[in-house]
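Can't attach files on this board, so I'm pasting raw text. These are the components:
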Amino acid sequence: MDGISHRHPALHWLHVNLFSSPTNTILTLLAALLLWQLVPPALNWAVFEATFSGTDSDACKYVDEHGEKVDAPGACWTFVKIRWPQFLFGLWYTRNFDQAWRPVLAFVLALGIIAALALPMFSHKQRYQIAAGALVVYPFVAYALLNGAWLGLPEAKTADWGGLTLTLVLASLGIIAAFPLGVCLALARRSRMPVVKGYAVLWIEMFRGMPLITLLFIASVMLPYFFPIGTEIDKVVRAIIAITIFQSAYTAEAIRGGLSAVPRGQYEAAEALGFGFWKSTILITLPQALKISIPAIMNSFIQLFKDTSLVLIIGLLELLNIIQVAARSSQWKGYEAEGYIFAAATFFFFCYSMSLYSRGLERRLDTSLAARRAQQD
Amino acid sequence: MTEANGGGAQEKSAESIIQIRGLNKWFGPQLHVLRDIDLDVKVGEKIVICGPSGSGKSTLIRCINRLEHHQKGSIIVDGTELTEDLKSIDEVRRDVGMVFQHFNLFPHLTILDNLILAPVWVKKEPKAKATETAMHYLERVKIPEQAHKYPGQLSGGQQQRVAIARALCMNPKIMLFDEPTSALDPEMISEVLDVMAELAREGMTMLVVTHEMGFASQVADCVIFMDEGSIVECSEPGKVEEFFKHPTNERTQKFFGQILHHI
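---
Top answer:
Structure tokens for the assembled complex are below.
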């Protein structure tokens, strides 16, 4: 072993990490074999034999020796290349493509707010002010842009929204609305007042015990009964109500976990200093609880982001569904795989961004890590 | 002058800042943790409470600021009787500072923010004034340079000194110490005891649960020995040293025999 490790750093690394024992060596070889079997064909399909050009599905076909049109062996990215406006903005914005700057601008504004919150140049207090201001103002700005009527632009009704734009609208509104509701439910579930606690337990257990798809059905079929006859409730609003209710139960449980993890001494110190329940919660225990529950909360947010696809069953065409519809059209039949890969990549991009953001947040809030840094200085 | 287990306590109530009569507490239906406690504490008096673990000494001082509530008897702190009434609890807590075994600083706030949080939000002091007071007390516990660090960056002894400063920022009339040095490494104990001794010299009324007998003989006006929820014995005024050497009760003798043996 020593003989090898002295030779070359690279050889040493290989030895320690890949061939340190007979079992390890066998596993390394098996993994290499698996990669050899999978990667070249995948690359062939996705890149080397794929079609990127053209304007319709004929670009991905060739005429064989019998004079018949046959699918080319590689991927047909032409499908994605031609249909991407639909995937991102929905059908209405594809027909009125000169208006597509509206969802783009709404998205860029949202990114700007998130970036401002992450920038180190603002103090805690300024961050709270930015966040609070954004929460009040942004939804109206986004609605004004997407709908357009308030700004005197061609109107895109909520039913016309689709694709990734709709996915982001549903997920972000669901997350933003469910968060305060979840905080209240978590506090209520820990309350000593039996009625408050009872309602919270009922709410959480009931909606956590239902599939989201059931809630969406209920929202679309039953919600109209609660309103005067003839009232038409917007489909998107129905979906958001269902998603918010569903998500609030999960957020509440994540936050309750955090509240339980805050040491008892923190509650006692707050009491001994004369803090009442609300001040103690808002200033002392809840901030610590939220920090502890960031990974769990983010986990449920990511889940929600993916679950938005279920709005298909009430007839909304978000990213995944609009791709499916496009892949069922006569022209693009047989190219579902390309569409699904595009959907998977897009979902992954957003979910992974959320994951990175939450990790950054955890790092920034970790006062004990700050300790280590300060010691190094 | 401290009176325990009844006996001539009534006439002294006027000068007592804490007056405990017939205090009983149970945890659940079975566990009787405090039995018929009577205790009077005068302004400026320093009382050390010791006893084996589970003897109820922490529970007793936690009753004084209502971190625990009692089932029988009465506790009057600076003229306010502790009842279920939230207002009376708030009033008492404003006068009583507490220092915990595990410091219980707020880890998400800087040292300075730990100190000004309660003055600003509970007593509604202006932030500038609270900050001034906070820096004054940080200097008194000898760590003003740590004001902008987080608790996690400080040693145990420093954290406990910050905890003492945090309690003092509320300008309390009484300070409760619940085993303030039990969680500290040996080399940090004296820096905390020094701060407490200085506080004692300045005339603060203090109740200290501790096994630091050196501190007790130096600072205490009176040492109370508790076992199985009752006050077994307490020292004659001004005769703490003698109390350690010649306790009259058998259980006290055994306990002091064990802990003094190790010093």
